[in-house]
């Protein structure tokens, strides 16, 4: 069994930058966010309202909607690029979203089903 740090990283975010392009100008919602989560770890993203927490999570899952756009950086899941400049990244994120990686949105009462 290989226990190197690289092999333990489940999620790796490098330089993730998300901008929103509006008539009033560009809003820099997330600027060069970088972090990783190892196997067995839990990560909480904490910040003030409007600081980019939800935008970061949505970008990681490939859920950024117009007028927003991931303009830089990459996201890797188990070593494979799922967000970034790789042409096949959208196909890979679609296969794992909801199966291996998911998000509970801000209003958990409408997101969780107790049945």
What does it look like?
The protein has 115 residues and is α+β, with helices and mostly antiparallel strands. The chain has one domain (5-103): 3-Layer(aba) Sandwich (Rossmann fold). The protein contains four helices and four strands; from the N terminus they run H-E-E-H-E-E-H-H. The protein has a four-stranded antiparallel β-sheet. The chain starts with a helix and ends with a helix. The model has no long low-confidence stretch (mean pLDDT 87).
| Fraction of residues in β-strands | 35-45%
- Give the low-pLDDT segments: none
Give the rounded overall mean pLDDT: 87
CATH architecture: 3-Layer(aba) Sandwich
Largest sheet: 4 strands, antiparallel
Distance between the termini: 38 Å
Overall 3D geometry? globular
- What's the name of the CATH homologous superfamily? P-loop containing nucleotide triphosphate hydrolases
Number of discrete domains? 1
Radius of gyration using CA atoms only: 15 Å
Structural class: alpha+beta
Q: Which sequence of strands runs across the widest sheet?
A: 2-1-3-4
CATH fold type: Rossmann fold
Number of helices: 4
CATH class: Alpha Beta
Oligomeric state of this protein: single chain
């Amino acid at each position: 069994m290989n226990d190197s740090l690289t092999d333990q990283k489940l999620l790796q975010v490098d330089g993730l930058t998300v901008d929103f392009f509006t008539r009033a100008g560009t809003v820099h919602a997330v600027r060069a966010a970088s972090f990783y989560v190892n196997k067995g770890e839990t990560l909480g993203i904490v910040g003030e309202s409007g600081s980019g927490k939800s935008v970061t999570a949505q970008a990681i899952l490939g859920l950024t909607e117009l007028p927003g756009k991931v303009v830089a950086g990459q996201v890797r899941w188990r070593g494979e690029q799922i967000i970034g400049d790789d042409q096949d990244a959208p196909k890979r994120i679609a296969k794992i979203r909801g199966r291996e990686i998911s998000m509970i949105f801000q209003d958990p009462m409408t997101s969780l089903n107790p049945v």
